[in-house]
Design brief:
Elements lengths: L1 H9 L8 E5 L1 H4 L8 E5 L4 H10 L6 E4 L5 E3 L4 E7 L7 E4 L2 E5 L4 H10 L2 E2 L11 H7 L2 E2 L2 E2 H4 E7 L5 E5 L17 E8 L1 E2 L2 H18 L5 E5 L6 H6 L8 H7 L5 E3 L2 E3 L6 E4 L5 H19 L8 E3 L13 E2 L2
Parallel strand pairs: 2-5, 3-5, 4-19
Antiparallel strand pairs: 1-2, 6-7, 7-13, 8-14, 9-10, 11-12, 11-13, 15-18, 16-17, 16-20, 17-18
Helix pairs in contact: 4-7
The protein binds flavin-adenine dinucleotide.
Amino acid sequence: MLSKLAKLVERTTMSEQRLTPNAPLGAESWFGCGGTADILFQPDDIDDLSLFLKDTPPELPVTVIGGLANTIIRDGGVRGCVVRLGRPFSDIEVRGTRILAGAAALNGSVASAAAKAGIGGLEFLSGIPGTVGGAIRMNAGAYGREVKDALVAAFGLTRDGRSEALVTDDLKMSYRYCGAPEGMIFTAAAFEGVRENKDTVRARLREIKEKRRETQPITEKTGGSTFANPSAEELGAANLPADTRAWQLVEKVGGRGLAIGGAKISEKHCNFMINTGTATAADLEDLGEELISRVKNLCGITLHWEIRRIGERQKTQDAPKTPETTG
Ligand SMILES: Cc1cc2nc3c(=O)[nH]c(=O)nc-3n(C[C@H](O)[C@H](O)[C@H](O)COP(=O)(O)OP(=O)(O)OC[C@H]3O[C@@H](n4cnc5c(N)ncnc54)[C@H](O)[C@@H]3O)c2cc1C
């Protein structure tokens, strides 16, 4: 594997820094901690990406990232190659009530472009940090709408470099889930909205911004909701009310303000973990696992991570850190 990586790195000089060895991914994540990528590849365009995928041996692990707003990069780093789409994939084009966006376009920019063009129905994207590619993979959503409600089609490349166009039904999306094949790298998407008065749409954007500021720790180093809300079936099996939310379970087990090392559950919203400044990725992950275990023991239900965790844990000689209640 290392010799294959070395060959890739060799191409770096010929490819104007599109390949970066030991790229500091963790520092660039919203949590601001974690390890590096063995190799980071930032393609020039879709042909470049397709050639790269065709050229690289199928056993080379390839991981795609977006804005890292929903991802913990483990401290030991990510093996293989990480692909990040940049500026060449961030164009946004308005056609009637349809918005075509590159997968690296920010969700917020898509929402703003829609508002400017008098297109309603995409405001929910405005408060969801990250990119269109990440939003499709996560079927991201807020305030009663999610990506699947506005997406018409997604375009992408398979691990072997073939391009595919998928209509929304093909993606079998449900709550925070997208059934696109593993390894699919989305490159662009088409969203459909409805014609509306620009001021009405802009007013809704302002409302969302205000609501988020009041209820979420948006100025902290965080990754959004730590756990997905349990399904009605899971809640039923644990004899819990069908409208129980993940944050309520975290609260119930003493999660608000709970800390491990530099990782802490936000006092403002207890489904948000924050890096108080000194957290390692392991602190964050251990805090999440501590809560999963407490909720399982006390409430009889298993919380599922909404946050993605990639890479390897660092092998450490340190004694395990114990949880402490703060605040
Ligand atoms: C303050 C805050 C508030 C948040 N609020 C919400 C919210 O209200 N609703 C919500 O749903 N989420 C929320 N999130 C989480 C996050 O914003 C979303 O999950 C977002 O969609 C992540 O996008 P990203 O580009 O950062 O993806 P990343 O974190 O980089 O990746 C997430 C997943 O998407 C995959 N991915 C990324 N790009 C591509 C691509 N081009 N092709 C294929 N797969 C790809 C990655 O492999 C990974 O599995 C919040 C996060 C923060 C920090």
